[in-house]
Structure formats: C-alpha cells, structure tokens
Amino acid sequence: MPCSTTITTTSMVITPTQSTKQHQKFVAGAIAVEEKEEEEFKLLSQECKELLLSLPKEKGWRTPFLYQFEGFWCQSKQIQSIISFQKHFKSKESDVILATIPKSGTTWLKALIFAIINRKRYSNTQNHPLLNSNPHDLVPFLEYKLYSNNQVPDLSNVFPDDHDQPRTFATHVPYPSLEESIQNSENVKIVYLCRNPFDTFISSWHFINKLRPESLPDKLSLEDAFKMYCNGVVGFGPFWEHMLGYWNESLKKPEKVLFLKYEDMKEDIVSNLKELASFLGFPFSVEEERENVTEEIAKLCSFEKLKELEVNKSGKAMTFSKQFENRLLFRKGIVGDWVNYLNPSMVNQLSQLMEEKFEGSSLSFKVL
User: Fold this and answer.
1) Total-model pTM
2) CA atoms within 13 A on the CB side of 305
3) For residues 75 and 235, is the Cβ–Cβ distance under 8 A?
4) pLDDT band at 327, cuts 50/70/90?
5) By C-alpha distance, which of 366, 337, 301, 68 is closest to 204?
6) How far apart are the first and last CA of the chain?
7) Which pick of 5, 74, 208, 362 has the fewest CB atoms within 10 Å?
8) pLDDT averaged over the chain?
9) Which strand (E) or helix (H) includes residue 68?
10) Do you know which Pfam families this protein is assigned to (predicted)?
11) What count of other Cβ atoms lies within 10 Å of the Cβ of residue 203?
C-alpha cells in the first residue's frame, strides 16, 4: 500500500555572527590539516618527501591526505616503509605471507595461521602465546612494523635460524607491489583473506573514526567516507583492484596463493581451517581430527575469545613508533552489519559498482 510523506521545511536565516563562526571553524580546520601534514613530513626521508611532491593526493580518512603510489592509495609514512620493504626484503622459500585489505579479518587470520603452524610447539592451549600476546605481535606487519620509519630490520633477530617453522609476515600491500622475490618464488605461500565490500567499508569507517586525531576537524561522516570508498580512495585501494589482484593470482597459481573469504570462514570455520592447514603444508592428521584439534584452534582464535583476553582489552602495540590500543581491533566481527548503516541509495550504488568492477572475474560475495 503506497504511503505519502510530507516534509515540512522552515526558512533559516544565518546571522553574521553564525557566518563568522562557520568561517572561523573552516579556517581552524584548514590550519590543523596543514600543521598535521607538516608534522608527518618531518618524519620522512628526503627521498620520500621529493616523491610525494610528484604523486596525486586526495583527502585522507585519518591523515590529511592519501597519496596514489604505484596505483593504490596510502599514507605518506606507509609509502616510505613500502619502499624500504621493496628494496631490502628477501624472501625465503618457506615464507608465508598473509595479505588483506584493511578491516577484512586480518587479526583473525594472523591468530589462525600462527596457531596452525605452531600447534606442535604449543599443544597445551592453556599456555598458548595467543592468550598473552596480540596476534599482530606474533605475526608482524611488513609495512606497519618491520620496515616502518625507513628502518631495515635484521630478520634473523625476529625469526632465529634455530626456529624450524616458516617465517610469517602480514601485509596490506597489493599483489603487484609485493617485493619481487615474493612474487617470483614458486614456494613462498600467500594467504589472502577477502571480506565483502559492504562490511569492509562499515568496519573501516568505524575504525578510522576511533583513530582519527583530534587535531583534524570533525569526524569523518558516513556520507563522505562512502563517496571516497566508491571512488577507490581508501587505504591500499581501490578495494576492487586489491581484491582482484590476489584473486587472479590465486586462479593462475593456486598452489602459491590461497584466496579465502571471511563469510565462508564464519559459516564453516573447520572446513576452511583444514584447507588452510593443507595449503600451508601443515595438514591435520587423522589423530588430530579425532582429538578435535581443529575445533580447539577455531575456539582459541575465535573473535569472542580474542576480544575477551586481557591483552586485547587493555594491551597496546607499537606501529610507526606510536602506541596502538589493541581493543580498537575488535568491534563486532559479524557478517551483514552494513544493513544498520547504509541507506537504499548507498546499497544500490555500491552494488552497481561491484557488478561493474567484478564483471567477468567470477569473484562473488555473500553480503548477509
């Protein structure tokens, strides 16, 4: 049954005082953005500063600007660390790389892979490192931690030679920008976790507003963030190019790149864990399956379990020499939360964008 809606409008007069205040707020915001940008530039190498001057830039989500580097968008300090990673990292044949676009289940994937690979060392889950350490401390980010601030780490100190397990790293870097030895190796394993773009967007928007510095004007509105997201201007985006980059590689080299979907893992974690373990070269034995080891790992690494650990409620980690509160990594961890935020017009716009960008790729998503 059709219904009519009547919208009553009233005229609003903006007084000179209100106009002055709005202008002052705008000026203050512009000054804050400029000061924040200058502060970030001080931390960069001269090489990186000169590079940034030549790159396209757009308004950032939690920094003054995002820069388009090698076809994707990222912060200035990330560009510096990615360049250092590309120049100095050398892979080993047994390396495992965890790749995601931000807010796609990275923390969860790190916990799962760490638990799978190290399950013989830490068979007693009561003393497991995941109970006292955030997954990001156990599986370090290449660009956020190891190569941050233009440093060149000695990876033998991170992964001692007497450690008989593979080195595990994480990254948000798109596939074409991975260091060459990772791409060229036939044995380096890459695990990509993909989440449907609707939930990825909402999770990103919440997360960024928690981290957005007070020095920047206002919070990032849902409408502004959505427009940027659909234009591809989001950290390590456009999201469709990031996802398709790893998707296409997984089709060409399934023995090298495993493409997992967040929604499938939430629906059937045990089957996905078995597939992941086999891909990594650590399959579950018949005896382990009989003893429910797979289920124990799923429980240990579940969102609910990780969120309630003290280390993830009050602990802090270091990224780019700044402390980061672990609790900010855990919000809801569910599928379909976007329905509580996006209006029909937004849903239609993002749906059409996905249909256009993913056409012919065979990549599809469960969004509810």
Assistant:
1) 0.88
2) 19
3) yes
4) confident
5) 337
6) 27
7) 5
8) 88
9) strand 65-69
10) Sulfotransfer_1
11) 21
C-alpha distances (whole Å) from 282 to each of 6, 54, 114, 302 are 63, 46, 11, 20
pLDDT digits (tens, 9 = 90+) for 235-292: 999 999 999 999 999 999 999 999 999 999 999 999 999 999 999 999 999 999 999 9
Q: Which residues contact 179 (CB under 8 A, 6 or more apart)?
A: 85, 86, 89, 90, 91
- Spatial separation of the C-alpha atoms in residues 257 and 107, rounded to whole Å: 19
- Segment 55-61 shows an average pLDDT of 96
Element (H, E) at 89: none
The Cα–Cα gap between 109 and 192 comes to 9
Catalytic residue check, 172:
yes
| CA–CA gap between residue 188 and residue 207 (Å, rounded) | 31
Q: How far is CA 289 from CA 15, 250, 273, 285, 295, in A?
A: 73, 27, 11, 6, 9
Question: In this structure, which amino acid lies at residue 88?
Answer: H
Q: Which residue among 128, 136, 172, 242 is the active-site one?
A: 172
pLDDT in tens, 292-320: 999 999 999 999 999 998 988 888 876 64
For tokens 């923390």, what's the residue? 107
Residue 171 pairs in a beta bridge with 99
Instruction: Quickly state the pLDDT bin for 164 (edges 50, 70, 90).
Output: confident
Q: What is the DSSP letter of 186?
A: S
